[in-house]
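Amino acid chain
________________
===
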Amino acid sequence: MERRYRLTDNEQFQRVKKEGRSWSHVLLVLCALPNELDYSRFGFSVSKRVGKAAVRNRAKRLLRESARARQAAIAPGQDLVFIARSPIADAGYREVDQAVEEALLQAGLLCA
């Protein structure tokens, strides 16, 4: 995912979590806040409660890949933060991918 499509600093994450709307799933929470850009930006957060570093990195990779695969279908002009929940540690790619899709559908952010 290109740098311009990523939320990079803590202030951006906090603003989306504080001012945006959120939708939950067993495996993740999706927070979204409109931005004034022509494209959507993504952030991924996995806390230490999910597991050790290897487990957290795997969860983040799964979330990132699932969001990247749907990037063209996601409504432009949104800042999105995906927050992993503990059960994601035992989930496979298909389960994470389905969870991301369900959260985006709940939020009404999938265009096509």
Residues 18 and 31 are 9 Å apart (CA to CA). The chain has a mean pLDDT of 94.
